[in-house]
Amino acid sequence: MESVEVAVIGAGPAGLSASIEVAKAGAEVVLIDENNKPGGQLFKQIHKFFGSRAHMAGIRGIDIATQLLEECEKFGVKTLLDTVAFGLFEKNKIGLVNNDKSFFLQAKKIVLATGASENVLNFPGWTLPGVMGAGALQTIMNVNRVLPGKRILMIGSGNVGLIVSYQALQAGAEVIAIVEAAPQIGGYGVHAAKIRRAGVPILVSHTVQQVFGSDCVERAVIIRLDEKWKPILGSEKKLKVDVVCLNVGLTPLTELAWMVGCKFVYIPALGGHIPIHNWNMESSKKDLYIAGDLTGVEEASTALEEGRLAGLAIAESLGYLKGEKIFKRKAEVRKRLAALRSGPFGETKRKLKESFMQGDEWKENE
Amino acid sequence: MNKGLKFTGVLSEEELKKCPGYPSEERFKKGPVAVIECIQEIPCNPCEVACPFGAIKVGDPIINLPVLDEEKCKGCGLCISSCPGLAIFTVDMLYSKTKAVVSFPFEYLPLPKVGNEIEAVNREGKIVTTGRVLKIKNPSKNDRTPVISIAIPKEWAREVRSITIPQEEKEERIIERS
């Protein structure tokens, strides 16, 4: 069985930044991803990111990905692509499959950065071709460069729904409407504002009732909801659409963490079951670190910083970084995380995460 | 129905009045000025660095709303493409006797051409007037966020924030009772 110092599972923003930090410190890293290209969802993020100018704000996700891949190359991160991690076992053994062959890899330290997957919503007609996740539409448009339809109905007004609607407009589709079951828009106002300027209606307290078509989506019926989220009969509207896009939240991909016996908490607002972790991004299992959406669904920018933190903590525990230097570096990253989690949107998630975070030593030392 | 950004995606008049990046009446009268339509505290500050005159202040923490220093702002528009939220515009009320110039970010293709007659839209995407394209700036520094300047009748300068997006033959939007 082959062995490495550090194995990182998932090559999205969290996995990439963790790998970079570990490799930069001098450790040997293998970065594993089931896709044929690293980058996770970053390569479909063609919009400019929010955040601090000092740390990649105002840069498009796709360019951040390119930058991160260059750093991986520079610091000698090894990548295993088209490789699925099917299991995590005692003694830090990872079960992998590549090209129909399975094998094991043993690592001193492991980072799980498996991300999250899109939730679905069930309604009559939801299995018709043309009903898809917002993330799926984004991949089809921006990575595969295919527009799967011309008239889109977006369900959900979170940032993903708003951004993907905008990108569908850029790709030349029409967005017929965005419906939101809650009485207010979920995502950032600025994203909503640019969609409105493009003439797209955003209907709050509305949901999709059913979708129909003979062999693909042809029409959708939306309906207004009262203050108790009950459909108001008679308020139905029929829309001619060919794509119905679902933006109804994400669920962390926790299978490997469950398998190896991590302790979990259940926090719906962070996406459901979350492996408990501390401010070094260590899970309850020895040698196992976690970062990114797996630790509670947030933004790509927070995933990047969490990955960095995990990478630094691992470099420290392996003895590559010591003393004042590592303390300072971790404090910087934690400060940036705190900044990203401030304000009305970030605050809630910060509080939820702090509710189970242990080993809060950075706060005591501030 | 509830008004305002959170409910409609459109800033209400009240919200604009309270917004620290929105210029005063007097400042509008003095010529080109940045209009920063940012009212939610999100962690973001690229606009602050983009201004060569130090007229935009976010400070620490970066969730502070950007504050416009009306005296320092020259209305140059360098901040427009820096905003990831596409929420910054410039307005020049002194362009001519009857016309004002509105500049805005526009990330749709194909771009119009200088001199084109265009349909100008308000914050709800409604066509409110027509105008003419004066300038299109898209240097590499804008990172693929072109900035378009249009001349429109003065009375619409507070409302016009974009133009209709180019579209192939589009079918009528069909919304019917089932």
Short description:
The complex is a heterodimer of chains A (366) and B (178). Chain A is α/β, with parallel strands linked by helices.
Please, could you describe this protein's structure?
In chain A, strand 9 (151-155), helix 4 and strand 10 form a beta-alpha-beta unit. Chain A is α/β, with parallel strands linked by helices and 366 residues long. The radius of gyration of chain A is 21 Å and the shape is globular. Chain A has helices at 13-25, 61-74, 134-143, 159-170, 189-197, 255-259, 300-317, 323-340, 343-354, 361-364; strands at residues 2-9, 29-32, 78-80, 83-89, 93-98, 101-112, 116-118, 131-133, 151-155, 174-180, 202-204, 206-212, 219-224, 237-240, 243-246, 250-252, 264-267, 272-275, 288-290. In chain A, helix 1 packs parallel to helix 2 and helix 4 (159-170) packs parallel to helix 5. In chain A, strands 1, 2, 3, 4, 5, 6 and 19 form a seven-stranded mixed β-sheet that branches. Chain A folds into two domains: 2-117 and 250-364, FAD/NAD(P)-binding domain (3-Layer(bba) Sandwich); 120-246, 3-Layer(bba) Sandwich (FAD/NAD(P)-binding domain), CATH 3.50.50. Chain A has ten helices and 19 strands. Chain B is α+β, with helices and mostly antiparallel strands and 178 residues long. Chain B has one domain. In chain B, the strands form two sheets. Chain B has a seven-stranded antiparallel β-sheet. In chain B, a hairpin with a 5-residue loop joins strand 6 (117-121) and strand 7 (127-137). The longest helix of chain B is centred in the first third of the chain and has 6 residues, at 13-18. Chain B is globular, with a radius of gyration of 17 Å. At the A-B interface, helix 5, strand 14 and helix 9 of A face helix 1, helix 4 and strand 10 of B. Strand 14 (237-240) of chain A pairs antiparallel with strand 10 of chain B, so a sheet runs across the interface.
